[in-house]
Amino acid sequence: MLILGIDPGTLILGYSLLDTDGGRLRIEAMDVLYLKKIPEFNLRIRRIFESTLRIIDSFHPDHLAIEAPFFGKNVQSMLKLGRAQGVAIAAAMSRDLSVTEYEPSLIKQTVTGNGNATKEQVAAMLRSIVGFEEQPHYLDATDALAVAYTCHMQLTSPVADLRAQLAPKRKNHKSTKQQWSDFINRNPERVER
User: Fold this and answer.
1) Is 21 among the catalytic positions?
2) From the centroid of its chain, how far is CA 99?
3) What is the rounded CA–CA span in Å between residue 151 and residue 146?
4) 7, 133, 134, 182: which is the annotated catalytic residue?
5) Confidence of residue 137 (pLDDT cuts 50, 70, 90)
6) Phi/psi of residue 51, each to 5°?
7) Does the structure show a pLDDT above 70 at 148?
8) Three-class secondary structure of residue 43 per DSSP
């Protein structure tokens, strides 16, 4: 499985592609989308959408794993971060990728065993787990790798298999794409076309 991990941001967005074929982890790509030079916020959001599509179309990942927004004191920053996350998810959904969000503390806990670990600690642990040579200039790239790694661990965990077996079978379960389509149909005034 090839997992696209994204650490969303409106100034710097980290992304990575983690190949989990045969239990061996290999980084296909790990970089950042640098958006600080784009002055208008809406143009940054557009660039995130287009760049996410370009990454998906170039590498053909099987899954998108994305860090969920965290609650901070600055509401405007949270809203902007949510928009960045939303357009990345929309890009993935437009290519029929499955999407999973992970809380920052779960990502840190999965990688380091400490839900309050620093970015530097996460990067150092990933270097020993996955074995990349050079430390990226921006830790947003390793944060994206941490999201992809968390997804891999969640999908391959024996506990996840047990949870799936024990979960009650839901009738009329709709995919995320169908849920969004239903929402748009019920709320056309909330969608800008």
Assistant:
1) no
2) 8
3) 9
4) 7
5) confident
6) -70, -40
7) yes
8) helix
pLDDT tens readout for residues 168-184: 444 445 555 566 666 66
Q: Which of 140, 143, 189, 192 is catalytic?
A: 140
Task: Kindly list the distances between the CA atom of residue 123 and the CA atoms of 54, 68, 91, 133, 147, in Å, as whole numbers in the listed order.
Answer: 26, 19, 27, 12, 12
Q: Hunting for tokens 């009650």 — which residue is that?
A: 168
**Which pLDDT does position 163 carry in this prediction?**
47
Homologous superfamily (CATH) for 2-165 = Ribonuclease H-like superfamily/Ribonuclease H (3.30.420.10)
**Contact predicate 105/43, CB 8 Å:** no
- Residue 81 · residue 67 · CB < 8 Å: no
- Verify whether residue 140 is a known catalytic residue: yes
> Whole-angstrom Cα distance, residue 137 to residue 180?
36
pTM of the entire structure?
0.80
Active-site residue, selected from the candidate residues 57, 67, 133, 134: 67
161 included as an active-site residue:
no
* 78-88 average pLDDT score: 90
Domain boundaries, the chain: 2-165
